[in-house]
Amino acid sequence: MAFDNDELNKRREEREQERKIAESQNKLLKIGLIVTAVTLVLCGAALLVTYGVVNFPAQQDPDLQVPPSTSESEPTEQTEPTPQVPDQVIHFVAGGDLNVTDKTVAAGTAVSGYDYTSVFMDVASILSRADLAALNFEGSLFGAPYGTEHKSAPIQMVQALRNAGVDLLQTANSQSVVNGLSGLRSTLQAIRSSGMEPLGAYATPEEFRESGGFIIRNVQGIRVAIVAFTKGMDGMGLPDGNEDCVNLLYKDYNSAYQKVDTQGIKAILQDIRAQKPDVTIALLHWGSEYNSKTSATQDTITKLMLEQGVDAIIGSHSHYVQKAVFDRDKGTLVAYSLGDFFGDAQNAGTDYSILLDLEITKNGKTGACKITGVECIPIFTLDETETGGGMRVVRIREAMAAYENNYISKISEKAYLAMKNAIEKITPRMELS
Questions:
Q1: 234-248 pLDDT, tens per residue?
Q2: How far is CA 429 from CA 54, 203, 326, 349, in A?
Q3: 3-state secondary structure 324-349
Q4: What pTM value is reported for the model?
């Protein structure tokens, strides 16, 4: 469940109310003193008029003494209440894999080329409201031919993602070098030209060294570090001298995936810590495809990253929604796999996925910052190709509500039952309360 935003708003309102009350009390105190002084002066004047000179006793009750008057040139020093700095809250939204295949490319086919606006329109409300939004882009941008064989997508696909609100694309994954280093460089350039930032892969070793292997974004005064790693690249290796072009989790990244690259991971994470970000998020392409279980080496990597100051681990690659565990006290999240954000949806369990909305709060008084809540938004790749509707990503709860209320644009009964099943599968895997 998400952290209660109403509670944060209530705290801010209470602090604002306290400030206003303090100001009112100060004003009332000043008015009270002035009224008292004026009253005593008037009383004294009345006595003089009535009885002439009045001799007051030498010793008076100190409680009845009038405070000494002050001149305008020497104003009384007033103590103003210390201003309260409100907590700062931002949101980071993460999605799973976007798989470049024949079907996903065809989903954007238009009269004049490609247009994927309608594909992502329903989830744009979630992505665009985030302060930062990230996905794993499992493909390349290397020009035609497009589709499964070359894993190349039209530039319009990532442009539509940007228009929908995505800021960051993970490029450390199975398809990082599917078209060689030239394909990687073309992909990175296209992502940047579309207004987004690639994560985890670099055009040259020099680019890696200049970046440190991560990025830091300053969002409304909160410094968010984001880093991405992959277990491997579908068995492909990196040419000699270019080993740093992709952030890797394993030394044997092109074979068995058993030797965790502890030294390489720690080097990047320690460089991040040296920059003193407020929060660190790691996007990991790991685990086994079409498998709900996690491995022993994943547990090793998780422990290592949490010890090195990572606050959130968000996984991809299995194409399934796996467990997600949020520790509210520590402010840490481990989500092993979010499933396919957009894919063929041909295998059972790959038609549904989740978006995770991380609420990050920086305490206005102490400056301490951590993840204070995580919300799960179930989504579904709806394939209506047979009925002329094409493919699109939709929010499950909203689509089910439209069906139940018999809206004109409602989904089919088959899709409704599939979404109902997805909710039943997702719910027990989310340990977010």
A1: 999 999 999 999 999
A2: 88, 37, 11, 13
A3: EEEECCCCEEEECCEEEEECCCCCCC
A4: 0.81
Q: Is 195 strand, coil or helix?
A: coil
Q: What is the pLDDT of residues 270-279, one digit of tens each?
A: 999 999 999 9
Would you tell me how many other CB atoms lie within 10 Å of the CB of residue 139? 30
Helix H or strand E segment including 180: helix 180-193
Following DSSP, what letter does each residue of 62-109 receive, concatenated? GGGPPPPP--TTSPPP--PPPPPPPPEEEEEEEEEEEE--HHHHHTTE
SS3 assignment, position 112: coil
Indicate the helix (H) or strand (E) that contains 12: helix 5-51
In sign, the C-alpha dihedral spanning 432, 293, 99, 281 is positive
pLDDT of 142-182, one tens digit each? 999 999 999 999 999 999 999 999 999 999 999 999 999 99
Return all residues near 341 (Cβ < 8 A) that are at least 6 apart.
95, 96, 97, 98, 135, 136, 353, 355, 379, 393
Name which of 123, 178, 276 is nearest 186 in CA terms. 178
Per DSSP, helices labelled H in 365-433 are 396-404, 413-426
Rounded Cα gap, residues 177 and 179, in angstroms = 5
Is the Cβ–Cβ distance between 352 and 339 less than 8 Å?
yes
Q: Which of 172, 145, 147 is nearest to 234 (CA)?
A: 172
Burial class (CB in 10 A: 0-12, 13-18, 19+), 311: buried
* Contact (CB, 8 A) for 104 and 98: yes
Burial 292-306 (b: 16+ CB within 10 A, else e): bebbebbeebbebbb
Between β-strands 312-316 and 332-335, what pairing exists: parallel, antiparallel or unpaired? parallel
Q: How far apart are CA 401 and CA 273, in angstroms?
A: 45
> What would the two tokens of residue 254 be?
């092109």
